[in-house]
Specification:
Layout lengths: L1 E4 L5 H11 L7 H9 L9 E6 L2 E10 L14 E9 L5 H18 L4 E4 L11 E2 L4 H9 L3 E12 L7 H12 L2 E5 L5 H11 L2 H15 L8 E6 L2 E9 L2 E7 L8 H15 L4 E7 L1 H8 L4 E12 L1
Helix pairs in contact: 3-4, 5-8, 6-7
Length: 312
């Protein structure tokens, strides 16, 4: 077995192996290009391929802030990420996987990185971490190589075809309105205040996602009604959005949490999703606290992920 860096000639074999090793997370050529190769931080020397007699038996995708700083996710520039590790089902997970992990860590150290996270790479993760149920052996491989769990994330799905705003939500929205808090669709004239709210209260990758969508809006590829905002005294204090049937990000400023704003915000966004013709809604990454709010609207846990990290 030998390990080499990425070559475009291996693209088809990578995607074939991806579907064989990680069947719940198979991707297309378009997704591979947009999320991996066109990532501003992509480095072919940290996309490693393991081959036996020229047969691809495994690969690992590593990422770090090569060109684009990652803000609060990597304030010192010392973090690195493994976003995907795939080993052929008929190959030795421990031997091939262990060798790929050792080599990617070696390359990260040579770049001055002192920590490696699985996975959650802000600009382009595929899943938050390792699926606890579907990929148990892969999870144990990372544990045996010194990676420790530090967080659990879950994805949730709901049918919204029969969704209706409840009397309770209407009453809560009326109460908020009496307190000067309004939940409404985003307007183009909100842009500067919206960006200011995001910069003050939200994490870097959420800001990046929203800037991308606002640019798409100016080009006709995104609509105002896909973003719902909450205002108080002419300031924005919360928001959520949807892209297709994907719901999120979704957040309320810390000062205003615990007042039922999130419940109304979520309900109105789902209402707009239904009006746009969507029958289902899904959230890729949330936690057990927010899951209680989602659960009120029929969302059920579909997958649970373990995030891990290791000092290099």
């Amino acid at each position: 077995m030998h390990i080499s860096s990425y070559s475009d000639a291996d693209r088809d074999r990578i995607l074939t192996l991806w579907s064989e090793a990680l069947p719940l997370d198979t991707i297309t050529h378009d997704v591979f290009e947009s999320r991996v190769l066109l990532d501003e931080n992509f480095d072919p020397s940290t996309l490693l391929l393991a081959k036996e007699n020229e047969k691809l038996v495994g690969f690992v995708i590593g990422a770090y802030a090569r060109r684009m700083p990652l803000g609060d996710h990597d304030p010192k520039g010392t973090c690195s990420w493994i976003t995907v590790l795939a080993i052929h089902p008929l190959s030795s997970l421990r031997e091939v996987g262990g060798s790929l992990i050792a080599e990617i860590e070696k390359r990260f150290r040579s770049l001055g990185k002192t920590e490696c996270v699985v996975s959650g790479y802000p600009p382009g993760y595929f899943t938050p971490g390792i699926d606890k149920s579907a990929y148990g052996p892969l999870l144990e491989l990372f544990r045996s190589n010194g990676y420790a769990p530090y967080h659990e994330a879950l994805s949730m799905d709901a049918s919204i075809v029969l969704f209706e705003i409840s009397d309770k939500v209407n009453a809560q929205q009326k109460k908020l309105s009496e307190d000067g808090i309004e939940v409404r669709a985003y307007r183009r004239t909100d842009l500067v205040k919206f960006l200011d709210f995001l910069e003050r209260t939200m994490q870097t990758d959420w800001i990046r996602v929203e800037r991308r969508n606002l640019r798409k809006m100016s080009e006709g590829g995104f609509r105002e009604e896909q973003i719902t905002v909450v205002t108080k005294d002419d300031d924005i204090i919360g928001y959520c959005q949807f892209e297709g049937s994907h719901f999120g990000p979704f957040g309320v400023g810390e000062k205003f949490q615990g007042r039922g704003i999130g419940t109304v915000l979520l309900a109105r966004a789902i209402e707009r999703m239904k009006q746009a013709g969507h029958h289902n809604a899904w959230v890729m990454w949330t936690d057990d606290v927010a899951a209680k709010v989602y659960g009120k609207f029929g969302f059920k846990e579909t997958r649970r992920f373990i995030l891990l990290k290791k000092k290099l």
